[in-house]
Structures are given as C-alpha cells and as structure tokens.
Amino acid sequence: MAQSSEPASRRIVIAGGGIAGLTLAVALKQALGEGFGVVVADPALAGPPRADSRAYAVAAAARNMLEALGVWRLAEAASTPMTEMIITDSRTPDVVRPVFLTFDGEVEPGQPFAHMVENAALTAALLQVARANGVALRTAGVSSGAMEEGGGVIAVTFSDGGSLDAALLVAADGARSKLREQAGIGWVGWSYPQSGIVATIGHERPHEGRAIEHFLPSGPFAILPLPDGGKLGHRSSIVWTERSANVPALLALDESDLLLEIERRFGLELGEIALESRPGAYPLSFGMARRFVADRLALLGDAAHVVHPIAGQGLNLGLKDVAALAEVIVDAARLGLDVGGPDVLEGYETGRRFDTLAMGVVTDGLNRLFSNDSTPLRLARDLGLGLVERMPGLKRFFIREAAGLAGPTPRLLKGEML
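RE: above sequence
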C-alpha cells in the first residue's frame, strides 16, 4: 500500500480490525471526511471471514451509535431484542431453579435495553460501511509505533515492511496488545480459575426474547436469545462459565453426552435442544491498563481493559471507548488542534478510566459473590436479589446502567452524529 496523500497530521492508524477498531474507523471517517485519512490494519482482513458462532449483547447505547453510523440496519436481521432478563440462583442438580429477580427488557417504551447480535453479521456490516466511507483497510498487522524526532508524528511500521507516519496510533489489538507492551504501559490483572464455554443451541420452543442467567456454584450459565432458524426452528447462545479444570473433559465428550451436560443447566422449558455449533472455550480474566494513553498512542477495547463476562459488558465497554475517543478527536480536528496531542488523549483517558474501573470492580465482585456454594453467601445474595425485585426504582437504575445510558454519555451513544 502506497503512502497516503494526506499529511501525517491528518492521519490516524488503527491497529486491529475487530468490532471496536472498525467502529472507531467508521465514526472518524464519517465525521472528518475526505481530507482525513483513517487506516485500519489487521492481517485478519485478508481473505474471507472465518466461521464464527460468537454473539454479543449490544446495549441500547451502543446500538444508538451503530444506528447513527448506518451500521445497525445492515446487521439488524441477525439480531434479536431482549424482552426480559431472568436471574436464578441454584445448584446444578436442582430440578427447580427459583427466580429471584426479573428485569423488564425496555429501558424506554419501545427501546429494548439490549439486542443479541451475531458477531459475523456485525463485522460484515462494519466492513461494508467502512469501505463505502473510504476507510483504508490494510491486510497487515502493526509491528510498532515510534515517535519521530520532534514528536510531531508517530512512525507506524507494518508487518509487511511498509510504514506510515500518523498523528495518532490506536491500539485495538486485544488483551495481549503488543503496542501497549512496547509503550511500556503496565497491566494489572489476574486470571480466574474459570473458562467461558460458548455455543449456539437450537431448541423447539420460542424463547420470546427472554434472556436467563442461572447462577451456579461453578459460575453463571447464561441463555441469550438469537434470531430463529437452525435445526429445531429456534436458537439461543449460551455462555457457560465453568471451572477451568473441568473444561477439557467436558469438551472431549461426544455430542450426546455434551448435550446432556448442557441440558442439566439449560433446563427443559424450551423443549428439545440441539447443538448448532461445537462449543469453544476461552480462559477468563480481569485486567486493566495502568494508563490508557501514551505519546500519540491510545488504547481501545480489550487492549485497555478485560472484565468477567458475568454482566455481558465487555464489548459495550469497548464501544464506549469508541464513542469517547471519536468525540475528543473530532472536536480537536474541527478546532484545528493536534488530534494526537497530550491534551486530547488526556481527555479520552479521563472520560473512560473511572467507568471501566467501576465496571471491573462490579463484575469481579459479582463473580466472587455468586460463583460459590457457600450457604451463608447464598442466603445473603438471595435476600439481596429479593430486595431489588421489590424496588422498581432500583431496577430501573440497573436497567439504565446495563443499557449504557446512565451518567454522562458521549454524543454517539445518544444516537447523535459527531
């Protein structure tokens, strides 16, 4: 790829072509137009997308942004709204799972607090909009970013041997970010003795948009609604948190035995079940970068923070990063300021640091509270869930938090264009 024609002071390179990186690229390109270069670099952009059964809970605020960017209309057919959230607390052998807490699925009339959307469809929609808006997609990774003499630009080197100068490099290269490590940004975190098992399940009865989270001693077992289809006519995604020591044996089971294990947790309310995809597993951890920025470098999404999936907020935290970073960059560009300058990046870090730390603390605390079989803790948490169930005002607060609409909100998350 040849050197772009725009000056380096009007160029941003994004390392990583996942959902967060592509969404930032689209938001910047739509707001800043032809005279501003936006490059997304990722080897995964080469060739057809790999088969992918992952699905995400996209909160109402994140959907507002995707709608404003023209992405949601292309992905909406692969989504389904959550009409209700049900929380139970029990042990795996229990035949009856008492319901302790229910949430209505609307944050406002006609506005679901979240939609489940399939990763492949959302990524395809983002790529289509990115290409239509003139985002440069480079099929090589970013090897390094080094400050030029004088500090006015950052020299970005790619894995194919090419290079570009830019005003800002965005590290959206995941939890094991090489760019974060190269910048000397520390990482505070720990691994959980748990893994997340993810699969798509077919079932014979409709889910009616209902999401269910069973709190079990080994961790939460979430059943999340997907659009109809598949072997039995209806589908859901499961996120099964299990002790890591048990996972290899579970995944080695033949399909019939694995379905029996899933059925013990899934329940019989939706009738017969079938595997639509072979389950995959990934280790669970918590992590937070000590800083979200360095000289002409901003961390985005998993490169900045990783949280337990117990509240389904991992992707939404990354999309909040997108909205906050896009806003400070666009505002600076329109004022003629340096978009990679320290004041701009400090504004991004200040806007995101507390929110991500608070969500990390909440998800870590919830996991420690619920992923155990302690009788005193079980009694205490069930009492707490019961109290919340009887307090409509508190339930509305939690719904707005889950929807991403509580507190100061960047413009894109309100559905406003930059």
